[in-house]
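Hi P.,

Sorry for the delay on this. The queue was packed all week, but I finally got your sequence through. Input first:
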Amino acid sequence: MDITDLTPLERRIWQAFPRGLAIDVRRDGREDPATIQDAERTVRAEVIRTLILGGSSASGEAPALRVAGAAITGVLDLQHAEIRHPIRLTSCHFQHSLELDGTQTRQLDFSGSHLPALAATSLRVDGALRLTNCRIAGSVRLSNAEISGGVFLDGAHLGSGDGWALQLDHASVGADVWAPGLVAQGGIRLGTAHVEGAVDLEDGQVKNANGDALDAARLTVGTVLNAGGLTAEGRVRLTGAKVAGWISFIEARLSNPGGVALGISSCEATQLTLRDARPVSGDVKMHYASFKVIEAEPQVWPTKVRLEGLTYETLTPRLPSIDRLALLQRDSDGFVPHSYEQLAASYRRVGDDADARTVLLAKQRRRRATLPWYARLWGYLQDATVGYGFRPTRAGGWLLALLLLGSVAFGMHHPPPVEHGKGPGFNAPIYTLDLLLPIVDFGQQSAFAPAGLYQWLSYLLIAVGWVLATTVAAGITRTLSRQ
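Then the structure:
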C-alpha cells in the first residue's frame, strides 16, 4: 500500500507503528465510541491489516499497534494470520465484526471498544486478551482458544439475547478469566475449558431464560470460581467441574423456574458457598458432587433437589439437625438412605452425637414408609419402644412402668406355688423382673404359676420383654455396624 494513499490519521498510525507509539484521537476519556462520526478519525481496516502483517521496523525498535478513539471501517480480517506485534485498539468503534479465527499473536487489547461481534475460535495469544468495558452486540467466540495470559471481560456488555453471548469452551487460559460486572444477554459457555487461575463473575448479570445462563460442564479451575452477586436467568451448569478452591455464589440470584436453576452434579471443589444468596428459583441437582464444606442456610434451597451420592465433611452454619432434615424430605428421588448417612456423619464428625442419632432415627422413619404394611407395623413398634435403638432410654422407661404394674398386680394377688413347701418365697418385683427379662433367671417364674387374668398378664410381660430385648439388640447392632 502506498503511503500517499493514506488519510492523515492513517499516515500517523503508519509512522507510529514501527516505534510502538500510541495514537489517541479521543475527545475525552468519557467519550462513547458509538458516537464517533468524524471523518478525520476514520481508519480503514485494510490499512490496519496491511500494517500489522507487513509493516517494517528498524533495528532496536519494538513495533506495536496502539490506537485509541478511532472508527474502523470495513472488515478487519486477520484469520489464520501470524502477528508478531502487540495490538491495542482501545475505545474504538468497529463497523464490522472482528475476524480472528486461527490467529496467532502476542497481545490483544480492545478495551472500551464497540464491536458487532468477535470471531476468534482457535485463537492463540502469548499474552493477555483484554475486552474490558467492551460493548459487543453479538457473540464473542473464543472456542478452542489458547491464551497464555488472562482473559479480561470486566464491565463488558455482550450478546443480543439470542444464543451464546460468550463461548470459551475447550479453551486454555494460563491465568484468570476476569469478568466482574460482566453483562451478557445470552449464555456463557465455558464447558471443558481449562483455567490455570480463577474464574471471576462477581456481580455479573447473565440472561438466557430459555437455556443455559452458564454452561461450565467439565470446567477445570486452578484456584476459585467466584460468582458472588451473580444474577443468572437460566440454568447454571457446573456438571463435572473441578475447582481447586471454592465455588462462591455469595449473594447470588439464581433463577430458572420450571427447570434446573443450579446443576452441580459430579462437581468437585473444596467449598461451595451460597451465603446470603437469594432462595434458588428452580431445581438444584447435586448428585455425586463432592465438597469439604457446604455453606448455605436451609431457606436457600428450593422445593426440589437431587442429593443422591452427594458427599461433604461439614455444613455451615452450624444448625440443629431438625433444620437440615427438611431438605432431605424434598429429594425428587424419594427416600435416599445415603443422604441421611452423610448428614449424620457430618454431625458425628464435629462430636454432635445427639443430632447424628436424630438424623438416623429420621432415616428409619422415612424408610418405614417404603415398606409393606406388616413391616411398617414392626417399625412402629420399634419406634414407640426404643426409637429404633437410637432412644435406648425409652426401654428403661417401659421396663420401669411394666415393673410397677407387675409388682402392684402380683403383690395384691400372689400366684400359687408350683409345689407347696418348695422353692423360694414369693417376691412380686423380682417375679415381675423374671418375666420381663428373657435371659436372666431369678428362680421366681418357674416356682409360681398364676392363673386366670394374672396368667394372661404374665404372658403379656414375657412377650413385651422379648420385644424390648429384640429391639434393643437391633439398635445395638446398628450402632456397632456404623462404628
